[in-house]
Amino acid sequence: MIEILKSYERTARKRHVCDYCDAYIEPGEKYDYATLVDCDGHLYEWKSHKECSFIASEIWDFADPDEGMTGDDFRDTCREICITFVCSFASFAFLTI
Questions:
Q1: Could you report the per-residue pLDDT of 72-86, keeping only the tens digit for each?
Q2: 55-64 pLDDT, tens per residue?
Q3: CB 39 within 8 A of CB 1
Q4: First and final CA of the chain: distance in angstroms?
């Protein structure tokens, strides 16, 4: 199980990459920062947009409680939600044109 050692909000002084969506966190932008340890005892940092952290907290029920949520899991779940609830009408309209 993943353990959060510390978690807080930071303001970027340089460009970072969001561990959820792989987009840039630009200087001056507020972002979430966490130090975690995985089940093998490896220590790592996690940086994410505030918006991505919010979305991840909302879809956490889909994550493996022992493994947590990787960036790939986040992107896959967002894609599935979009296809199911947001893009389904757009996809249908595209196919009928």
A1: 888 888 878 766 766
A2: 888 887 766 6
A3: yes
A4: 48
In angstroms, how far is CA 86 from the centroid of its own chain?
19
Q: Report the SS3 class of residue 30.
A: strand
2 — phi, psi (to 5°)?
-80, 135
- Residue 65 structure tokens: 């409680």
Neighbours of 32 (CB within 10 A): 22
- CA–CA distance, 95 with 97 (Å, rounded to integer): 6
Residue 48 neighbours by CB distance under 10 Å: 23
Report which residue type is found at 91.
Answer: S
The SS3 of residue 68 is strand
- pLDDT of 18-57, one tens digit each? 988 888 999 999 999 999 998 888 999 999 999 888 888 8
Name, in order, each residue with C-beta under 8 angstroms of 5's C-beta and a sequence gap of 6 or more: 34, 35, 36, 37, 43
Q: What is the pTM assigned to this prediction?
A: 0.72
